[in-house]
Structures are given as structure tokens and as C-alpha cells.
Write a sequence for this structure.
């Protein structure tokens, strides 16, 4: 009985130590694990310079402008904006007001030239009729506010 | 109370667990077939089209149950491993070994269906975000567990080595689960969780839950079958295996 309790304690102790070690490592690597930075973080200078990185946020309403094969749009986290230019095929779910993650380099003029654009969708799934009702309700709420 | 305990320990020996598992397997197969039928019917014919993703979202009915199972089976496997290390029981090592291939299959299904889903919706098959990467590590943990056990001839030592690997890897499970909360990821957050109401239409949710049940039943049935095979193999020298009707019935040897 004594040996068995010792083994149980050893397993639990080992797991606890491992958990703490993993937490510390992940904490140290925090910024490397994140897939993208937000426009605010770019404004704070947290983005790598002269190197490719990813920016994630919402595609700003009314910002998509097509210029031949190049698409211009603005990625925003509502606080800060980043103008993006991208030449290539956009995913179907890429839409104004929806999430997107763009990979590329930030030019000295502040224009982000993307080499890859990914659409980020949310965890809500509903039939089109329900989506329509939600949109209507949101519009009504907006028009109520002055 | 004491009666209950005695019963549990009775079935902890391969000798008495073997016939019990044999009786349970057909039931789990039947339930798996039933739930798969109902689940697929809901998935394809009852659940509505999604407003954003159209019909493509229906892969969720395989993707999410497979992902849940891949994590859950690992926890069960690690649980058996811990019991085996602590109590030195024979059955626990066999159960852990029996669960590993099914867990690996689930992790693979999760990654594969995820890639198929990611291409049309996100625009990429794969991205190194925290959720996808940690699930890939889970798949490697399963493969590593299987390889490690296969590399050691003595089953008792193989069990022990595997158990330690399984326990070390368990730290990855909360990382997978919380990765979408802790870090910026391309993968969206959880649609179904314990602390909020599900963010999907009722019938979609039902389809997913019934499919999850089907995966559970399949996993239990196949793991029990594998466990029975492992028992026969490891205990081939014992009296109880030699006197089994299927052994004396004059097949091999």
C-alpha cells in the first residue's frame, strides 16, 4: 500500500511540474505562438520591420477598392487601420465587415503589401433566414441611435 | 458499497474482462450504426444551410466529433496509463494500447477534414496557428506512443514506457482546447462549450451531438475488440486462454 501511494504521489507531482514548465515555456513564447498581430500592435511598433508578418482584423466597411487585378482594402481592429494592397485570388468568405488575416510586408509609406489573404470566420452557424433576421435587428438598432 | 468494489476489481483481470467485452462489443457496434445513420440523416437532410458558408459547413459533422474524440481518447488513454503505473494492473496497459490507434485515427480525421474545410473557407489547407499545430502534435504523440510500445519487446516495460509518454503528452490537451482563447489563431472559437449557450442552430447542434455519440460508440467497440486481441496475445501461455472455446475449437495451433 505504501509503495502504491508513493507512485501515485510521484505521478501527480510529475504532472504538476510538467504543467508548470509548459505554462512557463508557453508564456515565454507567447508572441511567437500568436498567428498574427493586430493593427494597434503594428502602430505600437510591435511588428517586425523589413520582414514578412501577418496582420489580423476586420475588413473595414466600404474600404474594398479594385484596381485591375489588385485589391485595396483596410484591415482594422476599430482602433487603428492598416491599408492593404493584394494581387491574387481572394477566398470566398472575404467580405467587408468580416475577419481576415493578411501576410506580407509593411512598406515605409504605411501600405501593407500582402502575399496571402485568408478569411477568418466566426463560430456562429445559422440558416440564412436567421442571419437575415439578425441583420435586420442590427440595422434597426443602428437607426434608433442618433 | 464493498460489493461494488469487489465487482470492479473482478473485471480488472483480463480473464473476466475478456468474456464481458465480448458480450458488449455487438451492442456498441449496433449503437454506432444506429447513431451514424441518424446523425448523417440529420447532417445532410435536416440541418439547414449555413448563412455564411453555404453547404460546405456540413463537414463540421465529421470534423468536430473527430476532434473531440481525439482529445477525449487521449485523456482516457493517459488515465489508464496512470492507473497502470500506480496500481500495476495488467488490464490498464492493454486498454491504453488498445485505444491509441483509434485516437490516432481521430486526430488524423480531424486534421484531414480540417484541411478540406480550410481550403474553401479560409483559403488555405494549412496554417501554423496554435490550434492546428497543437492538434498535429497530438497526432504525433499518438504515433509516438504506438511506435514506442512496438519498439519494446517486453509488454510490461512497453506499457511503462508508453504510460510515461502518454502522461507527459497530456499537457497538450488543455493547450489544444484553450489555444483559440489564449492566442490569435485563424481557427475560430468553440461553438459549443460548457459556459455559454451553443452558437449554432438547434438542428445543426443535434446533428453534431448525435454524430459525436456515433463516434463514441465506434471508439468503444473497436477499442474493446483490440483489447480482446491484445489479451489473447499477451496471455496466450495461460490456462484461461487455452481453455477458451474459440481456442480449443481447433483453429490455429
Amino acid at each position: 500500500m505504501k509503495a502504491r501511494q508513493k507512485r501515485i504521489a510521484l505521478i501527480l507531482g510529475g504532472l504538476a511540474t510538467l504543467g508548470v514548465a509548459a505554462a512557463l515555456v508557453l508564456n515565454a513564447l507567447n508572441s511567437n505562438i500568436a498567428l498574427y498581430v493586430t493593427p494597434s500592435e503594428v502602430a505600437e511598433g510591435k511588428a517586425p520591420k523589413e520582414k514578412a508578418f501577418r496582420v489580423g482584423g476586420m475588413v473595414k466597411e466600404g474600404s474594398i477598392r479594385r484596381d485591375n487585378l489588385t485589391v485595396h482594402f483596410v484591415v482594422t481592429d476599430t482602433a487603428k487601420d492598416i491599408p492593404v494592397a493584394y494581387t491574387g485570388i481572394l477566398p470566398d468568405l472575404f467580405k467587408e465587415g468580416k475577419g481576415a488575416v493578411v501576410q506580407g510586408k509593411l512598406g515605409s509609406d504605411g501600405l501593407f503589401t500582402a502575399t496571402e489573404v485568408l478569411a477568418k470566420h466566426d463560430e456562429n452557424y445559422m440558416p440564412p433566414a436567421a442571419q437575415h433576421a439578425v441583420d435586420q435587428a442590427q440595422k434597426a438598432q443602428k437607426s434608433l441611435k442618433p | 458499497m464493498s460489493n461494488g468494489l469487489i465487482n470492479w476489481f473482478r473485471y480488472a483481470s483480463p480473464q473476466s474482462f475478456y468474456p464481458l467485452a465480448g458480450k458488449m462489443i455487438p451492442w456498441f457496434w449496433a449503437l454506432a450504426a444506429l447513431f451514424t445513420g441518424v446523425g448523417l440523416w440529420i447532417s445532410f437532410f435536416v440541418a439547414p444551410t449555413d448563412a455564411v458558408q453555404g453547404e460546405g459547413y456540413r463537414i463540421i459533422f465529421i470534423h468536430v466529433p473527430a476532434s473531440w474524440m481525439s482529445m477525449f481518447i487521449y485523456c482516457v488513454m493517459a488515465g489508464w496509463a496512470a492507473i497502470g503505473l500506480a496500481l500495476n494492473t495488467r488490464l490498464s496497459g492493454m486498454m491504453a494500447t488498445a485505444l491509441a490507434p483509434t485516437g490516432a485515427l481521430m486526430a488524423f480525421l480531424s486534421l484531414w477534414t480540417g484541411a478540406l474545410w480550410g481550403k474553401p473557407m479560409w483559403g488555405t489547407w494549412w496554417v501554423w496557428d496554435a490550434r492546428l499545430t497543437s492538434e498535429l502534435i497530438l497526432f504525433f504523440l499518438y504515433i509516438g506512443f504506438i511506435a514506442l510500445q512496438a519498439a519494446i519487446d517486453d509488454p510490461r516495460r512497453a506499457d511503462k514506457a508508453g504510460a510515461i509518454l502518454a502522461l507527459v503528452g497530456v499537457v497538450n490537451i488543455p493547450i489544444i482546447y484553450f489555444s483559440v482563447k489564449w492566442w490569435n489563431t485563424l481557427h475560430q472559437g468553440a461553438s459549443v462549450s460548457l459556459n455559454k449557450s451553443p452558437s449554432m442552430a438547434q438542428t445543426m447542434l443535434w446533428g453534431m451531438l448525435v454524430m459525436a455519440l456515433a463516434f463514441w460508440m465506434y471508439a468503444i467497440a473497436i477499442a474493446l475488440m483490440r483489447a480482446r486481441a491484445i489479451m489473447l496475445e499477451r496471455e496466450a501461455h495461460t490456462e484461461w486462454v487455452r481453455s477458451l472455446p474459440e481456442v480449443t475449437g481447433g483453429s490455429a495451433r
In short: The two ends of chain A are 74 Å apart (CA to CA).
